[in-house]
Amino acid sequence: MTTCVSLGFGVIGMSTCAMGQLMPLHIWVTRDGVIRHVGPTLARISDGALMGAALDQAITVTRPKAATTVCDLHMLQNLRLKLRLSSVPDVIWTAMVVDLPTDGGALLNLSFGASIVDAVSRFDLTLNDFAPTELTAELLFLMEAKSAAFQQSRNLNERLESAKREAQAQALTDTLTGLHNRRAMERELNALTSPAVDQQFGIMHVDLDYFKAVNDTLGHAAGDHVLMHVAEVLRQETRKTDLVCRVGGDEFVLVLKDCDDLALLDKIAKRIIEVLEQPTFFDGQACRVSASIGTTVSSFYPDPKPDEMLSDADVATYASKNAGRSTHTVFDPENRDGSSWMN
Question: Is-contact 245 194, C-beta < 8 A?
Answer without folding.
Answer: no
